[in-house]
Design a protein that fits this description.
The complex is a heterodimer of chains A (284) and B (551). Chain A is built from nine helices and two strands, in the order E-H-H-H-H-H-H-H-H-H-E. By secondary structure, chain A is mainly alpha-helical. Chain A is elongated. Chain B has 551 residues and is an alpha/beta fold. Chain B folds into two domains: 189 residues, 3-Layer(aba) Sandwich (Rossmann fold); 224 residues, P-loop containing nucleotide triphosphate hydrolases (Rossmann fold). The two termini of chain B are 39 Å apart. Classes of the chains: A mainly alpha (284), B alpha/beta (551). Chains A and B meet through helix 6 and helix 7 of A and strand 2 and helix 15 of B.
């Protein structure tokens, strides 16, 4: 449609429209990422040292977030906890995402027996309750960071697979995929160039949600004492350790809960408000 | 005669996603007298539907009526609050949508949907409304008028559903009716019946209304006056006879010229003596699981043979569901036939694309109807055209880039479009890119599957001219599949007529005036002509119509 411009175009920056809620979410996520990387350099006290004479100490000038059930510095423990919570969850979500989405696209394009076998196998995996599965694995193999990452990844592969397959099946019926197919293109090319770029948006949003679930599941496992081993602790473990401080309203139990809440909510806000590309070319 | 509808200085604005506002209707004036049908004609994006919608005081999401007045039967729809508009919609003014199939709720019986308007406005008792609906069904010459209302929308055909949508609009005896391209989605033989039904109902009830269409020949049958629109402005207004005979505006003349494309000069060698490029031998194609005798459950194409000579064109015509697209897919190797074979350039082609050599795949290219789905929305024009160059010809970056420029020149697209994505192109531009991708392979044969059906007539005529020009330069052969008979006539040397999966006749464009098979006669006589008296003078054998139309 060619039409006259009737108002002075508001020049959008970067050609994307961003909104305030999304920016707020992104800033909080960014804050925790920076904390995770910089934690060893910025913690005021080593995390194992008992620095307070009292336990469940209140917030003070020396100990900003009070002390935990042994009198250790909560600030340091939260900052270090960000490393475990973020690191394990990100690693797990990447493994789950890459393998689930790749398998999903392969199943959608190949169809037939491959699709059948993959789908039934992953459905079977999906039918095992996730908490029970992780409990059994951790109880059997013992808890270590690699075991936690792999367990989380395996639990979330079927979901990523299902989601990607459903999207890819729709794209696969489009004429441009048919054109590529009768051009004689390989499976790898079809996945990389024709399917993936067209499903990447929803897939990223889905992985963002899965990341949140992984953070919560990891916190849950740690709360049960099956997560990261002491003296190191992720946020879930911090909540569990200090659960005794609940009657005293100790910051030691409230702050890690707030940390989990802030990260998961921020990630959700971010993926619900990702920047949208402005397609009105004449305006940019 | 006083005007029933007065539109004065109408301005509609749309807001783009960057917050910029653009005028899509720029000060339009329009009058409709009582009992008069005014046609709005123009290409897509010209604002014809937008104007028709303002009669109901409605603007689509993102659009706003910002100026002017739309007075319908003494009431200004623009100034009216939403509640007041809702009270008039369906009662004073009603709407017949383009796609009746999408407008009906599949889960509710037709009768309940037809009388819904009466229930909402309470203009008459429901029993009376039902009786009126049945009489409308009869007036619209629907089969079994007494019982058709008890069916669900999926149990009637497309043409019937379109007439039922008209019955739904007429039930509350509105003063003004809006027809929004009501026959565009129908086959020509069905269109004739639907147009006849509309025309008789309109003249019997002296209905005033707007008929939105891009097809001048259809409009000529129905409308008293024609308004030609382009870019939200009225280009020309006149009575139907005036516009058809004495169009003043160059754009109107262009529209008229596009309805009847001129025949290009063809090489004089006869098709039978020229060397065969593609031969299809008794091909049968089907869908669904194989039965015990090795034939699939649903047969789409049965025992079709055809022959395309080097550098010549073959047209395949037929109505939707006749198997013409399935045949194209079998030739391209997308859908392997279960019987018969395809010989290309003297060599038998594998039945499926996987069993063909890359060179064989390169030489036969297919171009699809919907450029929207045939182009990857995530890739730029450059990527789309560059891939076949890399894949088939192994071109390095520099020669590839030069070749892309060449291809864009060939299909007459500006080189500045290289970095755009399909969503940023118009329909005609997309179809050109789609075609350029086929050319990038250096093919000998291009199968064109309804490539002009989704385009406006003027744009489609330009694409046809382009195809002819490229054929002269590149020694291409086309298999041109379409339901648009004039397009096929304009470009093809031979025409195959298909009906229910079978080839029933092969004729030349010169012989199109006197086809032998009764179905071909019916099909050809159903194509609307630029003559207001065409529909009234059209005599079709009712026996034939009954035999070949499953309405």
């Amino acid at each position: 449609m060619t039409s006259a411009v009737t108002s002075t175009p508001r020049r959008p920056r970067f050609g994307y429209r961003i909104n305030a809620v999304g920016v707020a979410g992104a800033l909080i996520v960014l804050f925790w990422i920076v904390v995770a990387f910089a934690a060893p350099a910025i913690i005021p006290h080593p995390i194992g040292d008992i620095v307070d004479t009292d336990y469940f100490g209140p917030m003070s000038r020396e100990l900003w977030l009070g002390s935990d059930y042994l009198g250790r510095d909560m600030t340091s423990r939260i900052l270090m906890g960000a490393r475990y919570t973020l690191g394990i969850s990100v690693a797990a979500v990447i493994i789950a995402g890459v393998s689930g989405v790749t398998l999903g696209m392969i199943a959608a394009i190949t169809g037939g027996a491959v699709d059948m076998v993959l789908s039934r196998f992953l459905d079977a995996l999906n039918s095992i309750p996730s908490k029970l599965f992780s409990l059994v694995v951790v109880a059997a193999v013992g808890s270590s960071i690699p075991v936690l990452i792999v367990t989380m990844a395996v639990i979330y592969i079927p979901g990523a697979y299902r989601f990607a397959r459903a999207l890819a099946v729709n794209i696969n019926t489009m004429d441009f995929v048919v054109v590529a197919r009768i051009r004689g293109e390989s499976l790898f090319y079809l996945i990389r160039a024709e399917i993936l770029p067209n499903i990447i948006g929803p897939v990223m949003v889905d992985l963002g949600l899965r990341f949140v679930f992984i953070v919560l599941l990891l916190s849950g496992l740690s709360f049960l004492g099956l997560g990261v081993k002491p003296p190191y602790a992720d946020w879930g473990a911090l909540v569990r350790e200090n659960i005794g401080g609940l009657p005293y309203a100790a910051p030691a139990v409230i702050v890690p809960s707030l940390a989990i809440a802030s990260l998961t909510i921020a990630v959700n806000l971010l993926i619900d408000n990702l920047p949208t590309k402005i397609r009105d070319r004449e305006a940019s | 005669m006083r005007s029933l509808v007065q539109i004065r200085d109408l301005v509609v604005e749309a807001t783009t996603d960057s917050g910029r506002t653009i005028e899509i209707i720029k000060g339009v004036d329009l009058d409709i007298a009582e009992g008069e049908i005014v046609a709005l004609i123009g290409e897509s994006g010209s604002g014809k539907t937008t104007i028709a919608m303002t009669l109901m005081g409605y603007a689509r999401a993102g659009c706003k009526i910002v100026g002017g007045s739309v007075v319908v039967d003494g009431v200004d729809m623009v100034a009216l609050p939403e509640k007041g508009r809702a009270a008039l919609r369906g009662a004073t003014i009603a709407y017949v949508p383009q796609s009746a199939a999408a407008a009906f709720n599949p889960a509710i019986r037709i009768m309940d949907q037809v009388v819904e308007v009466v229930r909402i406005h309470g203009v008459m008792p429901i029993e009376e409304a039902r009786a009126k609906a049945v009489s409308l069904f009869r007036a619209l010459s629907l089969p079994n008028p007494d019982s058709i209302g008890d069916r669900y929308p999926h149990q009637v055909s497309g043409g019937q559903l379109q007439r039922l949508a008209a019955a739904m609009a007429l039930i509350a005896s509105p003063k003004v009716l809006i027809f929004d391209e009501p026959t565009t989605a129908l086959d020509v033989t069905t269109q004739v019946e639907v147009l006849r039904a509309f025309k008789s109902v309109i003249s019997a009830n002296r209905i005033a209304g707007i008929y939105v269409s891009h097809d001048l020949a259809v409009v000529a049958q129905i409308a008293d006056r024609i308004v030609v629109l382009r870019n939200g402005e009225v280009q020309e207004t006149g009575t139907t006879a005036d516009i058809l005979a004495r169009a003043q505006h160059p754009y109107t003349q262009q529209l008229l010229a596009a309805v009847a494309p001129h025949h290009g000069s063809r090489p004089e060698t006869s098709a039978t003596t020229a060397e065969a490029l593609l031969e299809v031998h008794e091909v049968s194609v089907g869908y669904g699981p194989l039965r015990s005798d090795g034939r699939p459950a649903i047969l789409a194409v049965e025992n079709v043979s055809l022959r395309v000579a080097r550098g010549r064109n073959l047209g395949i015509i037929g109505e939707s569901g006749c198997g013409k697209s399935t045949l194209a897919r079998a030739i391209a190797g997308i859908l392997p036939p279960f019987a018969g074979g395809v010989v290309f350039d003297g060599r038998e082609l594998g039945r499926s694309a996987r069993s063909r050599s890359p060179d064989q795949l390169r030489q036969v290219q297919i171009v699809f109807q919907h450029a929207d789905t045939a182009l990857n929305p995530a890739q730029t024009v450059e990527d789309i055209l560059g891939r076949p160059l890399t894949f088939y010809h192994g071109m390095a970056r520099k020669p590839r880039s030069a070749r892309i420029d060449q291809l864009l020149d060939m299909v007459k697209l500006p080189r500045s479009l290289r970095l755009r994505r399909p969503a940023e192109l118009s329909g005609g531009q997309k179809q050109r890119v789609n075609f350029a991708r086929a050319l990038a392979a250096d093919p000998k044969l291009i199968v064109c599957d309804e490539i002009t059906s989704a385009l406006d007539t003027v744009v489609a005529a330009a694409i046809i001219d382009l195809l002819k020009e490229l054929q002269r330069e590149l020694d291409l052969a086309y298999v041109f599949i379409s339901h648009d008979l004039s397009m096929v006539e304009a470009i093809c040397d031979d025409i195959v007529v298909m009906y229910r999966g079978r080839k029933i006749e092969q004729i030349t464009p010169e012989a199109m005036a006197r086809p032998e098979h009764p179905y071909t006669q019916l099909l050809l006589s159903s194509v609307p002509k630029l003559d207001p008296a065409w529909l009234d003078n059209l005599r079709q054998d009712p026996e034939q119509v009954r035999e070949y139309c499953q309405h």
